[in-house]
Every structure is written in C-alpha cells, then in structure tokens.
Amino acid sequence: MSTLYSKATLGLMTLQNHLVMAPMTRSRATDNIPNTLMLEYYVQRATAGLIITEGTSPSPNGLGYPRIPGIFSPTQVEGWKRITDAVRVKGAKMFVQLMHCGRISHPLNLPEGARILAPSAVTAAGEMYTDAEGMKPHPLPQAMKEEDINTAISEFAQAAKNAVTAGFDGIELHSANGYLLEQFIRPNTNQRTDSYGGSIENRARFVLQVTEAVIDAIGKDKVGIRLSPFGVFNDMPLYDSMETDYTYLAEQLNVRELAYIHLVDHSLMGMPPVPDAIKETFRKLFKGTLILSGGYDAERSEKDLTAGKCDLIAVGRPFLANPDLVKRWETGAAVNDPDMETFYTSGPKGYTDYPALEK
Ligand SMILES: Cc1cc2nc3c(=O)[nH]c(=O)nc-3n(C[C@H](O)[C@H](O)[C@H](O)COP(=O)(O)O)c2cc1C
Asked: What is the pTM of this model?
C-alpha cells in the first residue's frame, strides 16, 4: 500500500494525494497578470494533491523579475480566479506563493513608481536578467523605514485576502531563497540597529509580524511558510548561528499554529548540504504539517513519508516536465526531462507542450 498516492490531510483540507507541486517561477505572466496559458499549465498538473503557485508578488515593489505575476490588483485577482476555478475541477488544492523579491530586483523589471526595498542598503552580488537590456548588476536597495515595513506587512495581509477572493485554498509565505522575508532573517542582509535587526528575536520580527498579519486576514489553516535553512541562493552566505536561528523560527512558527512549514533543500542542485539535523529539529518542534522538497523521486518520497520524516513531499522539476507526473510515478512509466533553456522564456514552448502519456 503506497502512502504517496493515498489521500492526505492538510489543516482542515483533504488532499487527493501526498504530492505537492513545488512553487516554480515560469515568467509567462505578461504585464504581471495571470493568463490563459498559465491556466492551461496549472490545469495540466492538477492531479497533484496540492499546487503551490510560482512566486507571486503582494506589491508592485516585490516584482523583481520580468513577467512574474502579482496578486495586488483587481485584474490579477480576476486572472487567478479563472485559474483556481479550472484547477479545482481536477481535484488539486491550490496555494499561492507570496514572493516579495526585495533587493533581488532591477528597476527595468519594475512598474513605474515601484521601489527596490530591503532591510538594509546591501547590494546582492551578481546579476539579474531584464527583458529590456539582458543581464544587469543587482542595484543598491533602499533600507526600509519603519513606515515601509508597516506598508509591506499590510500588503502581505491584503494579498492574502485577495488570494481568498481569487479562490485559493491558502497562501505560502516565501521566506526562503534570498527574497525579502529571508533578507530580514539573515545577518548579511539585515544590518539594522532598530528592533528589526541584531538578535534573532529582532531579525525574525518582520517574518513573524507578516505571519501574524496574514493569519489575522485569512486564518491560520490557510497559511504556510517556506524556509531555506542552510540555503545560500541569491548571495546569502552560511554563518555561525544558522542552526540556532532556524530553531528559534521553528519554535515561534509552531506557536502561531500555521498549517505548514515547507523546507527547501537545493543540495542536489549543487548547493551546500542541508543537515538532516535541522530537518529533524523542525519535525520535532513544529506540530503542524511538514513538507520536504529537493531532488525527490517516487521511491525516496515513499521512503521519507513512511519513515515519518515529513507529511507531504514537494516536487519541482519533475512536475515542470511531466503534466501527468502522478500517473507516471504511480505506474512506473518513463518521465520527460526538464529543459532548462525554457524555464523562464515566454510562450508555450517548454511550458505547456511537455507530452502526457497516451490515455
Ligand atoms: C524553474 C524553477 C523556478 C523556481 N521558482 C521558485 C519559486 O518561485 N519559489 C520557490 O520557492 N522556489 C522556486 N524554485 C525551487 C523549487 O521550488 C524547488 O525547491 C527546486 O526545484 C528543487 O526541487 P526539485 O529537485 O524537485 O526540482 C524554482 C525551481 C525551478 C527549477
């Protein structure tokens, strides 16, 4: 009897299986508005238990990359509503990932009047893709004033309400991979001397206030969060107190009783290892649902679920390349390989044209 393909519980919801489609930015949202092509992509993959959408900005300021969707304007909410309506018919539950890019951004990618914000004015190493001029160095962000922090918290809360209006079953806070929420947690990007910087209690304050605000807005059963302990993506180096910092976060998030914590592990993508010990710490301290991700195939998914390491498994690239991944894994059929060249390009190629098995 397989656990992976049996029904699962997430908060008050029942999922049709234990497989989660991991959030993946696909850059098909022209003008930052969810469209019919995106509808087709998500519907093709709606045999997952839970779909977590691509990173979606709660604010014009958070739209760091070209062609990523937002969920702050009525047109965006309308676009998402069409997608959730169509996905629901196929049985998957759907959470929108709220991603505020913070300093991982470029003026050429932002709408007029938007600002590049971060806890402190620290530029990320490396470059960022823009449609207008190709690769450009990361710009210097503006250190957020207290007023900017309060505005950002309200934008997250409003985006959570918009998500419910748009028919989502919940929201995932993107507090991983070097974006705004993680920029507050990590000492290299947070050099503040006020109550948001310094100790981990202070560096975690923004994330916890955002968590509380979205819970107030839509209820704790509809809120999850993604974290990347030991993640280094987007110029977020390892540092000494990483483990104690994330242990503190596990404890604090447990008190807030949100639906799930979703841990990133990009060690199989060439990033540093994520120690098992930190995953075990989250398992022990957090009483809600734990989702693990990173390099899973069917066999390892089954193994970790059966061993009780987590409650659900999130899968990225295999879902990207296989619209009918659940069926392929369940029947042991061959899988399509993902094509990196088309991860972030426009149009249907490498997006909605991966073949499904013959019926
Ligand atoms: C094309 C692509 C886009 C991604 N975009 C996001 C994103 O928007 N938000 C996020 O949290 N992770 C993002 N990720 C990371 C994935 O969610 C996942 O953690 C990673 O692909 C490892 O899982 P896998 O080995 O199953 O692919 C992205 C990954 C890929 C390949």
From this structure: 0.99
Say yes or no: CB of residue 24 within 6 Å of ligand 1: yes
Distances 59 to 62, 72, 101, 128 between C-alpha atoms, Å: 5, 6, 10, 19
Distance 317 CA to ligand 1 centre (A): 7
Cβ–ligand 1 contact at 178 (below 6 Å): no
**What atom of ligand 1 comes closest to residue 226's alpha carbon?**
11
Question: Is the per-residue pLDDT at 359 higher than 90?
Answer: no
pLDDT in tens, 21-73: 999 999 999 999 999 999 999 999 999 999 999 999 999 999 999 999 999 99
Rounded alpha-carbon distances, angstroms, from residue 278 to 11, 227, 242, 265, 339: 23, 11, 10, 11, 32
List 5, 41, 42, 179, catalytic entry: 179
Q: Is the separation of the CB atoms in 200 and 250 below 8 Å? A: no
How many residues are given for the chain? 359
